[in-house]
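We were asked to recover a plausible sequence for a given structure. The inputs and outputs are reproduced exactly as logged, with field labels preserved.

PROBLEM: sequence recovery
POSITIONS: 152
GIVEN STRUCTURE:
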């Protein structure tokens, strides 16, 4: 069954195409990050999200916010944080104002690896989009991704 299968509704066709595009992009990025940096897509995403934290108001993310940002359950996110902490890429510490809260920060080694991996991530994304643009079912979605501007 393809995204243009006549048995599917328009909504289902769109979802199939979007799912296919996502899968192709994620697989390409996963292979590139693993080969070049020993990182999974989820590990890269977690490092990226946590690297954007700051010390000001609302600067540190709660684990639920991190889980939402990397599209994982809280328990899976905690396991991922632990794996990266074991590799020396993240560190955890108690919140200075609420001893029950635990913050997670990217270490210097984590920041270095993230910066090394960024061009790989970008190149793999570009390659995946270029390849997908050749597929008539995916080309409209590729154009939408390329023109999408997310407000800061």
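RECOVERED SEQUENCE:
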């Amino acid at each position: 069954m393809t995204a243009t299968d006549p048995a599917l509704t328009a909504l289902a066709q769109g979802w199939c195409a979007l799912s296919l595009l996502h899968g192709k992009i994620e697989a390409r990025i996963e292979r590139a990050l693993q080969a070049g940096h020993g990182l999974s897509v989820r590990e890269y995403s977690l490092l990226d999200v946590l690297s954007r934290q700051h010390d000001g108001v609302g600067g540190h993310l709660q684990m639920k916010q991190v889980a939402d940002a990397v599209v994982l359950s809280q328990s899976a996110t905690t396991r991922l944080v632990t794996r990266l902490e074991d590799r020396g890429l993240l560190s955890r510490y108690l919140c200075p104002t609420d001893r029950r809260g635990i913050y997670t920060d990217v270490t210097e080694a984590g920041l270095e690896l993230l910066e090394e991996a960024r061009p790989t991530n970008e190149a793999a994304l570009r390659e995946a989009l270029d390849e997908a643009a050749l597929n008539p079912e995916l080309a409209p979605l590729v154009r939408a991704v390329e023109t999408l501007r997310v407000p800061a």
